[in-house]
Amino acid sequence: MPQTRPAPVIDQTAPTTAAPAPPTELSLEERMAFINAAMSVRLDEAKVAYEVNTAHIDTEPVDLADVVTVPLTPTLQPPPDPYPTPVAALLQRAHHRLLTGGWCKDVLVDEDGARCMLGAIRIEARGDSGLEAGAAAVLLDAIRRKFGDDVDSVPSFNDAHGSGRVPMRMLDQAAGLADARGL
Length: 183
Prior knowledge:
This protein has 183 residues and is mainly alpha-helical. It is built from seven helices and no strands. The N and C termini lie far apart (143 Å).
C-alpha cells in the first residue's frame, strides 16, 4: 500500500498579533500640560501676527515725565530762583509749596496741610486777589493748551487726578507761560 504522508498539523495555539489596548484616559496634569504647550504655540503665533499687522501704525511719543519718577526730597531742595514777573513767581511758589507740603484733591487744604492747586495759589498770593485771579487764569490757559478746552476749571482738573504729579507739572509749566507773557 502506498504510504501516505500525514497532513501537516497547524498549531492553532500559537500567539497572533494582539489587538491594541483601548486608549487610557489622560490624567488632569497631562491634559493641562498638552493644553499649555498648544496655547504657548498659539500665543507666539498671535504675537508675531500682531507685530506684523501693527508695524505700519505711527505711535505717539511717550512723555518721560509721566513714566520716570524719582524720589523727591523736597525739604532738602532749596526753592528755585524766582521768576521776575509777579504771576510767574506766584505760580512757581505754589508749585514749590505742593512739592514740599503735599498735594490733595477735593478740598483746598486737607487735614495734613496738603493743598490743591488753587489752595496753593491762594496761600502764596498772600491776600492779593488780583494776583490770585491772574495766576488761576494763566494756569487754566496752560491746562487747556495741554489737555484741550474740555477742562472747566482749575479745581475740576485738580480733582480729576489720582496723584499730584500732573497738577504740579502744570503749575510749573504755567509759571513758565506767565513769565513768557511778562505777567
